[in-house]
């Protein structure tokens, strides 16, 4: 309790900037330099708030893979296994659709 009151008195003196010009002594509580905190040590600065999923790398890549799979389904048609004999196209043939790839030589 006594140390606490001394620290409070010291803070009040510093806050009011009551400094005795005649004394050259530096007030010190004997603790030395104060330790740095998390903010200073990490030095992240101003970073945007991230979603919980994005802070977990495993979940982030899982969701990313899911999204790429959905995009890939739009580009490449799924392979359909033939269980019976070929009986024509079930969905019909779309005349305006081209799914070939260009060969650049």
What class, by secondary structure content?
A: mainly alpha
> How many β strands by DSSP?
0
Order of helices and strands: HHH
Low-confidence stretches: 18-26
Mean of all residue-level pLDDT scores: 81
Distance between the termini: 86 Å
Helix content: 25-40%
Shape: rod-shaped
Number of helices: 3
Biggest beta sheet summary: none
Spatial extent as radius of gyration: 35 Å
* Oligomer kind: single chain
Task: Give the amount of beta strand, in percent.
Answer: under 5%
Topology:
Blueprint: H1 2-16, H2 38-42, H3 57-75
Structure write-up:
This protein has 105 residues and is mainly α. 37% of the residues lie in helices and 0% in strands. The chain is built from 3 helices and no strands. The chain has helices at 2-16, 38-42, 57-75. The radius of gyration is 35 Å and the shape is rod-shaped. The N and C termini lie far apart (86 Å). Mean pLDDT is 81; it is low at 18-26.
């Amino acid at each position: 309790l006594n140390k606490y009151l001394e620290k409070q008195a010291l803070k009040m003196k510093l806050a009011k900037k009551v400094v005795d010009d005649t004394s050259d002594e530096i007030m010190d509580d004997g603790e030395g330099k104060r330790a740095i905190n998390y903010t200073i040590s990490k030095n992240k600065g101003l970073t945007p708030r991230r979603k919980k999923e994005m802070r977990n790398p495993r979940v982030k890549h899982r969701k990313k893979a899911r999204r790429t799979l959905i995009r890939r389904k739009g580009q490449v048609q799924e392979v359909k296994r033939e269980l019976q004999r070929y009986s024509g196209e079930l969905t019909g043939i779309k005349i305006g659709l081209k799914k070939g790839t260009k060969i650049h030589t």
